[in-house]
Predict the 3D structure of the following.
Amino acid sequence: MTAQDTKDALQLAGRTFRSRLLVGTGKYKDFAQTRAAVDASGAEIVTVAIRRTNIGQNANEPSLLEFLPPSRFTLLPNTAGCYTADDAVRTLRLARELLDGHDLVKLEVLGDPETLFPNMMETVAAAETLVKDGFKVMVYCSDDPILAKRLEEIGCCAVMPLASLIGSGMGILNPWNLQIIIANAKIPVLVDAGVGTASDAAIAMELGCDGVLMNTAIAAAKDPVLMASAMRKAVEAGREAYLAGRMPRKLYSATPSSPTTGLIGR
């Protein structure tokens, strides 16, 4: 039995998911490549930037839903490109209308267009409004343990601290803060932003994260479909390593890996 089995499924917003890898749908050359990468990733949840992707609001353009139908995938509308709480709330209310009452969403309110670091004051304000409005909110946030706990207290269904800046590919820069967030959370914690390659995803899972969300790491790879497959395996391996429990770290050890008793002549 592997870690991807239903006995170790991801429990999120009252639903069960076999895959702990969530993927974005932007930056691909076309919707066909998007679908191929999503299939290779094994992801069941795909996030969609409502302000940048057509899911029906532009009637004369190809729709992402033709390639990633809601009957097959769980869509996660997000507020990429929003810089105020009001804009984020308005965007997700539009998504709910377009997707026939869909309530599972990803909230992100950015602080500036250069770093794309989250504006946490606006994020908290938007989260409060959306939760009261009946949304199930997964929220992109800084790796501040106090603010992550505040978002949980508001009623968000998952917190998603950044590993490093969006699109940077720098990997996990502060594993200690992530571990504090994980240790104190009663809701799922998923790394969001900054993953660059498969080892980054594996490390996030080994730390105890419940999942990883990524877009650029796959879409900007030389071979996005192959990278999606690599990320799938990395998340599975990292989860299994976390469940197995790694050996203690030691500067050195005088204990050999082979037995020293019962040998001939001893």
Observations:
- The first strand starts at residue 10 and ends at 12.
- The CA atoms of residues 183 and 208 lie 9 Å apart.
